[in-house]
């Protein structure tokens, strides 16, 4: 049987062996040649440009210099053991060194600390811990530092010889140096930087492209890999060997018609050029092809799943709108926005379709999702079913219940609140009401999914702020169904993410978007301030309070340093109380360590206007609705993520008064923090912020949980950065499946084959959403 190169054990790749193979397995999950060539560079370095030493700055990425060795110093555990640093007079003319590898007697006694000079072949390299090499290029000098492979490097870096050094500048003791740069001999013809002879046996058809090559791939690496000798250079060589072995076996995964239609290069070309780009254009085409392919198969697998689900998952038929809905609708204190109406229509169509609804409702903070939830719940009730609305925290559940009850009054539906702190008697009564069906709508927290909560006929589950709920919890909710069919599911989130991305992240959920705020909302003015302006801030707060407004002051709560966070909160509270003494000022405090009663007491006091200031941790992040609050002060704002800041800001600007958000930060900010703060000050558009957030942190973080990540891992495409390709791939996948849902046509044979692979065997997400 012919051995497949793609499936060959990585240890048999030239230069690897069992030890390095183990490292590759552990660190990068690479088992075979085929795995290796699917490890793509995340960056490329232009090897053609040479930076003058004088122009090196510590914040530069990888650079290349061409410089002459002046001196080498070897250090042992206790200090300098050998040096060929010439006397100060010899300063810039280090070329006078002997070329035989012997170490000169040092001229500067200082530098040697009286050590007896040793000759090169007497140096006991096993005691040498570090080598410092000074090089110079006519514009300046820089030191290179080596901790490993010193003996070999020492032999190579003879004073007077010139090399190309390639590495990343770093700062040590205030001086710029390079640690473990790669060392290249000078090109003989000044053309290609690659060492002659390498890859010669594969000339012509080999992986490495011809002499015009100037771009070198940089691969993901770890400390362990580097220590194990798998440097960037070694990785490049490994890729070259693996590609040469595998390229003849590469089978195209996309049909010709598709490649033609989308202008995609063949897989073999793409693989070759992603590792060893012939030129910038080939690299771009290679990247596009690989990203498109990855996203296409992702979309195809998601859509197939969705197709199977919509065919199989019968849902409760709810053909009516119902009395309750109409009574509530007629009594609404305001007309619905266009977006709210559209979304309700989408939901209604799902519920009367006979298929199970699995819908994600996205809407920025304050866009009026609660109203939609209420009307949706009433549709279920109007069809003779019960509905539950789950909130992630006790405070939110209470708030929801309060608001919802207000809207629901005219509908005449029995509604209840069930949380962890519901008293036993009350709880018993609620359980009974749910079982006999007299309670139509139940609002609550996780308490709703406890095993002892039974419904007579749960027909709809609404989950607010979905990312706070684990997959497990949602699965439990799903099992609450008693009529043999799963309840319809509406997931609401205030995290605005681009549509295609949402459809990708949430598997087969349908997506509705409320992209319009209720009228009359005034923009929130956002201001960045540091400690020096605190007195001014307090004056401003006093003015607002004097005008009858209320103020939020929020402190970060990050669990790794919970103790410190609470310390900050306590100090902050004391500071506020000192600056705003009672009377006349009334300050309430809410945080996660309080009992639910205390929390509720303080929240209620603020909501009812009995407190002017609410000092809180990010507990209040979601949902809290106090229209009279006009100022949101966020302390240590640099410690919050963009979406969190946006959520917090959404707590103000809900009333008729002009509102403000003040972001307090330290004096010194990282580049990223500065960017975040600037963005917050420049836009209120949640979508814009979410996209930026994703660029900075990736969708995993944005999601707030890893569990609802992607069904397959992406190797090269990024959901955050490749939105356009994602849309293109989505459209393409939809078209293909519309014409050939089972991918049984000859035209789509290759697609079906690829999709049949194990890695696309995704879980059925509908069961857990
Ligand atoms: P979300 O949950 O999406 O953040 P809410 O449902 O809490 O937003 O609504 C925010 C505020 O807007 C509430 O005070 C609500 O009463 C009000 N509201 C909702 N819909 C409308 C509308 N169509 N017109 C005017 N105000 C509305
Ligand atoms: Mg809400």
UniProtKB/TrEMBL annotation:
<keyword id="KW-0378">Hydrolase</keyword>
<dbReference type="Pfam" id="PF17191">
    <property type="entry name" value="RecG_wedge"/>
</dbReference>
<keyword id="KW-0238">DNA-binding</keyword>
<keyword id="KW-0347">Helicase</keyword>
<comment type="similarity">
    <text>Belongs to the helicase family. RecG subfamily.</text>
</comment>
<dbReference type="Pfam" id="PF00270">
    <property type="entry name" value="DEAD"/>
</dbReference>
<dbReference type="InterPro" id="IPR027417">
    <property type="entry name" value="P-loop_NTPase"/>
</dbReference>
<keyword id="KW-0233">DNA recombination</keyword>
<dbReference type="Pfam" id="PF00271">
    <property type="entry name" value="Helicase_C"/>
</dbReference>
<keyword id="KW-0413">Isomerase</keyword>
<dbReference type="GO" id="GO:0006310">
    <property type="term" value="P:DNA recombination"/>
</dbReference>
<dbReference type="InterPro" id="IPR045562">
    <property type="entry name" value="RecG_dom3_C"/>
</dbReference>
<dbReference type="InterPro" id="IPR012340">
    <property type="entry name" value="NA-bd_OB-fold"/>
</dbReference>
<dbReference type="InterPro" id="IPR001650">
    <property type="entry name" value="Helicase_C-like"/>
</dbReference>
<keyword id="KW-0234">DNA repair</keyword>
<keyword id="KW-0067">ATP-binding</keyword>
<dbReference type="GO" id="GO:0003677">
    <property type="term" value="F:DNA binding"/>
</dbReference>
<dbReference type="InterPro" id="IPR004609">
    <property type="entry name" value="ATP-dep_DNA_helicase_RecG"/>
</dbReference>
<comment type="function">
    <text>Plays a critical role in recombination and DNA repair. Helps process Holliday junction intermediates to mature products by catalyzing branch migration. Has replication fork regression activity, unwinds stalled or blocked replication forks to make a HJ that can be resolved. Has a DNA unwinding activity characteristic of a DNA helicase with 3'-5' polarity.</text>
</comment>
<dbReference type="InterPro" id="IPR047112">
    <property type="entry name" value="RecG/Mfd"/>
</dbReference>
<dbReference type="GO" id="GO:0005524">
    <property type="term" value="F:ATP binding"/>
</dbReference>
<feature type="compositionally biased region" description="Basic and acidic residues">
    <location>
        <begin position="190"/>
        <end position="207"/>
    </location>
</feature>
<dbReference type="InterPro" id="IPR033454">
    <property type="entry name" value="RecG_wedge"/>
</dbReference>
<feature type="domain" description="Helicase ATP-binding">
    <location>
        <begin position="350"/>
        <end position="514"/>
    </location>
</feature>
<dbReference type="GO" id="GO:0043138">
    <property type="term" value="F:3'-5' DNA helicase activity"/>
</dbReference>
<dbReference type="GO" id="GO:0006281">
    <property type="term" value="P:DNA repair"/>
</dbReference>
<dbReference type="InterPro" id="IPR014001">
    <property type="entry name" value="Helicase_ATP-bd"/>
</dbReference>
<dbReference type="InterPro" id="IPR011545">
    <property type="entry name" value="DEAD/DEAH_box_helicase_dom"/>
</dbReference>
<feature type="domain" description="Helicase C-terminal">
    <location>
        <begin position="547"/>
        <end position="695"/>
    </location>
</feature>
<dbReference type="Pfam" id="PF19833">
    <property type="entry name" value="RecG_dom3_C"/>
</dbReference>
<protein>
    <recommendedName>
        <fullName>ATP-dependent DNA helicase RecG</fullName>
        <ecNumber>5.6.2.4</ecNumber>
    </recommendedName>
</protein>
<keyword id="KW-0547">Nucleotide-binding</keyword>
<feature type="region of interest" description="Disordered">
    <location>
        <begin position="184"/>
        <end position="207"/>
    </location>
</feature>
<keyword id="KW-0227">DNA damage</keyword>
<dbReference type="GO" id="GO:0016787">
    <property type="term" value="F:hydrolase activity"/>
</dbReference>
């Amino acid at each position: 049987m012919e051995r497949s190169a793609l499936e060959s054990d990585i240890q048999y790749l030239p230069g690897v062996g069992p030890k390095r193979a183990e490292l590759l397995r552990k660190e990068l999950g690479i088992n075979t040649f085929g795995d290796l060539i699917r490890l793509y560079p995340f960056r490329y370095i232009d090897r053609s440009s040479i930076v003058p030493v004088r122009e090196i700055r510590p914040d530069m990425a990888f650079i290349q210099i061409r410089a002459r060795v002046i001196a080498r110093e070897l250090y042992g555990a206790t200090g300098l053991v050998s040096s060929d640093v010439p006397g100060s007079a010899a300063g810039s003319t280090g070329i006078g060194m002997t070329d035989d590898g012997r170490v000169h007697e040092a001229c500067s006694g200082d530098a040697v600390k009286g050590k007896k000079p040793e000759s090169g072949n007497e140096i006991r390299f096993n005691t040498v811990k570090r080598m410092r090499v000074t090089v110079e290029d006519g514009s300046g000098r820089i030191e290179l530092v080596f901790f490993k492979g010193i003996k070999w490097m020492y032999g190579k870096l003879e004073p007077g010889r010139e090399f190309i050094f390639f590495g990343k500048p770093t700062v040590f003791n205030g001086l710029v140096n390079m640690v473990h740069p790669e060392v290249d001999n000078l090109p003989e013809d000044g053309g290609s930087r690659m060492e002659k002879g390498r890859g010669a046996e594969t000339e012509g058809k080999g992986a490495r492209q011809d002499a015009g090559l100037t771009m070198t791939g940089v691969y993901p690496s770890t400390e362990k890999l580097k220590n194990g000798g798998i440097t960037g250079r070694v990785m490049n060589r490994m890729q070259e060997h693996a590609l040469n072995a595998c390229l003849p076996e590469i089978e195209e995964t996309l049909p010709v018609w598709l490649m033609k239609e989308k202008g995609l290069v063949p897989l073999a070309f793409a693989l070759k050029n992603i590792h060893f780009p012939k030129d910038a254009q080939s690299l771009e085409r290679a990247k596009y092809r690989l990203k498109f392919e990855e996203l296409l198969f992702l979309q195809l697998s998601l859509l197939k799943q969705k197709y199977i689900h919509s065919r199989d998952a019968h849902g409760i038929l709810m053909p009516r709108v119902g009395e309750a809905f109409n009574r509530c609708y007629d009594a609404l204190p305001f007309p619905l926005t266009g977006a709210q109406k559209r979304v309700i229509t989408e939901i209604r169509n799902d519920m009367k379709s006979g298929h199970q609804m699995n819908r994600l409702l996205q809407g920025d903070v304050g866009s009026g999702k609660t109203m939609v939830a209420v009307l949706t719940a009433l549709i279920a009730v109007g069809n003779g079913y019960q509905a539950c609305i789950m909130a992630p925290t006790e405070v939110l559940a209470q708030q929801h219940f309060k608001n919802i009850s207000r809207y629901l009054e005219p509908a005449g539906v029995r509604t209840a609140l069930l949380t962890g702190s519901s008293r036993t008697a009350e709880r018993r009564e609620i359980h009974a009401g749910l079982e006999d069906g007299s309670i139509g709508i139940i609002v609550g927290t996780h308490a709703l999914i406890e095993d002892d909560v039974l419904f007579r006929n749960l027909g709809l589950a609404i989950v607010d702020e979905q990312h706070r709920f684990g997959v497990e919890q949602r699965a439990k909710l799903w099992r609450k169904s008693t009529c043999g069919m799963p309840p319809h599911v509406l997931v609401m989130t205030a995290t605005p993410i681009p549509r295609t991305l949402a459809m990708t992240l949430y598997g087969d959920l349908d997506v509705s978007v409320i992209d319009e705020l209720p009228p009359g909302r005034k923009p929130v003015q956002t201001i960045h301030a540091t400690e020096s302006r605190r007195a001014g801030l307090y004056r401003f707060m006093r003015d607002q309070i004097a005008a009858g407004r209320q103020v939020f002051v929020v402190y970060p709560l990050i669990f790794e340093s919970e103790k410190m966070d609470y310390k900050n909160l306590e100090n902050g509270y004391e500071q506020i109380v000192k600056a705003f003494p009672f009377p006349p000022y009334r300050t309430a405090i809410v945080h996660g360590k309080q009992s639910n009663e205390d929390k509720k007491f303080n929240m209620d006091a603020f909501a009812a206007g009995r407190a002017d200031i609410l000092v809180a941790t990010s507990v209040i992040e979601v949902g809290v609705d106090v229209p009279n609050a006009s100022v949101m002060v966020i302390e240590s704002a640099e410690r919050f993520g963009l979406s969190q800041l946006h959520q917090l800001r959404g707590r103000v600007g809900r009333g008729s008064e002009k509102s403000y958000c003040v972001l307090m930060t330290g004096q010194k900010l990282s580049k990223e923090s500065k960017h975040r703060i600037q963005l917050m000050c420049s836009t209120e558009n949640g979508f814009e912020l979410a996209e930026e957030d994703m660029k900075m942190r990736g969708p995993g973080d944005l999601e707030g949980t890893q569990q609802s990540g992607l069904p397959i891992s992406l190797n090269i495409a990024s959901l955050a950065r490749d939105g356009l390709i994602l849309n293109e791939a989505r459209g393409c996948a939809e078209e293909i499946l519309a014409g050939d849902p089972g991918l049984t046509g000859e035209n789509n044979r290759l697609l079906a084959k690829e999709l049949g692979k194990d890695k696309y065997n995704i879980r059925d997400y509908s069961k857990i959403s």
